[in-house]
Specification:
The protein is an alpha+beta fold. The chain has one domain. 28% of the residues lie in helices and 28% in strands. It has four helices and six strands. Strands 5-4-1-6 form a four-stranded mixed sheet. Strand 4 and strand 5 form a beta hairpin. The termini are far apart.
Length: 156
């Protein structure tokens, strides 16, 4: 029987800006160039060399070595503080943007988290992998930065 042994988020510089990103607080898609609450101070400056966008893809790593992509529509961007950003801060943000999201009105954090983990377990079951939401929540969650993202952090 195949089991999930860990979660892994791959973070990479988003060179080709996608049309939408999910903001950290609620997973709402926001069109490119518009303000992103909590992430962007306003419309993205065109050609701003300080602008850095990062994509994040969450995968389940199975005991047989396979990976199943769970979320591939997450990311964040910033023009501020890249001169002081650390690898650890990027890893923390990558874990944040792949969820669980902040609760919606009338929902507790625990309810939002339970919904998130149940959704991921259902995705895995749809791929034929037996998965339990509580077990997924307790798995190790690694973040792997691409070489070009590591180079960007080193450069600053």
């Amino acid at each position: 029987m195949t089991a999930v042994v860990r979660l892994e988020t791959a973070a990479d510089l988003d060179v080709e800006e996608p049309s939408t990103f999910h903001d950290v607080g609620g997973g709402r898609p926001v069109p490119s160039g518009q303000a992103r609450p909590g992430l962007w101070p306003g419309p993205r400056p065109v050609g701003d060399p300080r602008q850095v966008s990062v994509s994040a893809t969450l995968s389940a790593v199975l005991d047989d070595g396979r990976r199943i992509t769970l979320l591939d529509d997450r990311g964040w961007g910033s023009t501020a503080h890249w001169d002081a950003t650390t690898v650890e801060e990027i890893e923390d943000m990558a874990r944040t943007v792949v969820g669980p999201d902040e609760p919606v009105e009338g929902q507790t954090y625990e309810e939002a988290a339970a919904t998130h983990w149940a959704y991921l377990a259902a995705l895995l079951r749809g791929q034929g992998v037996i998965a339990d939401a509580k077990a997924l929540r307790s798995l190790p969650h690694d973040v792997v930065l691409s070489e070009r993202l590591r180079a960007r952090v080193r450069r600053t």
